[in-house]
């Protein structure tokens, strides 16, 4: 990242209450392991101290619109921090990790005056991260999360999924251009199963390897969509979500639509060819077999 003017830098960090060491911004769709990953990053903060501003509102200053806050990977006083962020975050001390996250948003959607982090000087960031997940596992988890909610009708769930498919496609476009854009991408499916992969991400971010375990299940958004009682990430079958939902008629219906999205399919061909192949097989099937002529 380019260096910011000292006066502007001082003003930003004064509002935060400390001058960070690593200053990280993470993008990712819901149900992509965002909170497991942010918890792991915090456990590997260089000084052992961290401040996490969760799910900030796009196009606004992240210090003003975070939905929740963590201090050293533990939930902090959100309302108090909204009124006095420096007072709450300041004790972390200079050199602590700052982590800012955005959900269901892609930087590709913002340009010019419509900057993702609003007036925040993003040249102060040391890295931009993208958390992503294979399509079948991600979409299955998202649908499964919504289904028990009586406030979400089938039509509403389908609408949410289709809009999410569009943003997911934009996220994958970032992944394919990661080197060009200077992004660190974290594939949740691999992150869960490969300790060496996790170590390589820490090295890329110049973070010490303090705790490379998967940690406890994070309870944001109700925790796991499938295994509500699981306490450790090791217990989760995160790589089987798509398989577990294949017999669900609602899931099959949205997969029929996804298979006809040429932009999404091109992205899946590049990054998740097995998912793309399955969607093509779905597209060859009759979505709603005829039970006789219409009356």
Please characterize this protein's 3D structure.
The chain is of the alpha/beta class and 295 residues long. The protein has one domain (6-282): Rossmann fold (3-Layer(aba) Sandwich). The chain is 43% helix and 12% strand. The protein has 14 helices and 7 strands. The chain has a 7-stranded mixed beta sheet with strand order 4-3-2-5-1-6-7, sandwiched between helices. A hairpin with a 2-residue loop joins strand 3 (68-71) and strand 4. Helix 7 crosses helix 13 (262-271) and helix 13 (262-271) packs antiparallel against helix 14. The longest helix is centred in the middle third of the chain and has 23 residues, at 154-176. Mean pLDDT is 86; it is low at 223-233 and 290-295.
List the helices and strands and how they pair.
Elements: H1 6-16, E1 23-28, H2 34-43, E2 50-54, H3 62-65, E3 68-71, E4 74-75, H4 78-83, H5 85-89, E5 97-103, E6 127-132, H6 135-146, H7 154-176, H8 178-181, E7 183-187, H9 188-193, H10 195-204, H11 241-245, H12 249-258, H13 262-271, H14 273-283
């Amino acid at each position: 990242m380019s260096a910011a003017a000292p006066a502007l830098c001082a003003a930003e960090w004064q509002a935060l209450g400390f001058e960070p060491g690593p200053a990280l911004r993470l993008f990712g769709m819901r149900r992509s392991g965002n909170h497991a990953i942010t918890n792991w990053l915090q456990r590997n903060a260089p000084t052992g101290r961290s401040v996490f501003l969760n799910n900030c509102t796009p196009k606004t200053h992240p210090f003003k619109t975070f939905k929740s806050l963590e201090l050293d990977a533990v939930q902090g006083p959100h309302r108090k921090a909204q009124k006095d962020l420096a007072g709450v975050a300041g004790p972390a001390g200079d050199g602590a990790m700052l982590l800012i996250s955005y959900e269901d948003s892609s930087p590709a959607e913002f340009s010019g005056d419509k900057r993702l982090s609003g007036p925040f000087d993003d040249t102060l960031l040391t890295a931009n991260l993208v958390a992503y997940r294979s399509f079948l596992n991600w979409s299955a988890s998202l649908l499964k999360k919504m289904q028990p909610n009586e406030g979400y009708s089938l039509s509403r769930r389908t609408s949410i999924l289709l809009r999410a498919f569009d943003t997911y496609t934009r996220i994958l476009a970032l992944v394919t251009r990661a080197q060009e854009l200077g992004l660190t991408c974290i594939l949740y499916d691999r992150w869960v199963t490969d300790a060496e992969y996790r170590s390589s991400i820490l090295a890329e971010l110049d973070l010490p390897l303090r705790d490379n375990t998967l940690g406890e299940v994070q309870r944001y958004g109700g925790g796991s969509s499938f295994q509500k009682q699981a306490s450790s990430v090791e217990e989760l079958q995160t790589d089987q979500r798509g398989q577990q939902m294949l017999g669900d008629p609602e899931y099959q219906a949205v997969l029929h639509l996804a298979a006809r999205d040429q932009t999404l399919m091109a992205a899946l061909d590049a990054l998740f060819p097995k998912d793309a192949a399955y969607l093509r097989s779905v597209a060859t099937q009759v979505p709603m077999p005829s039970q006789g002529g219409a009356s």
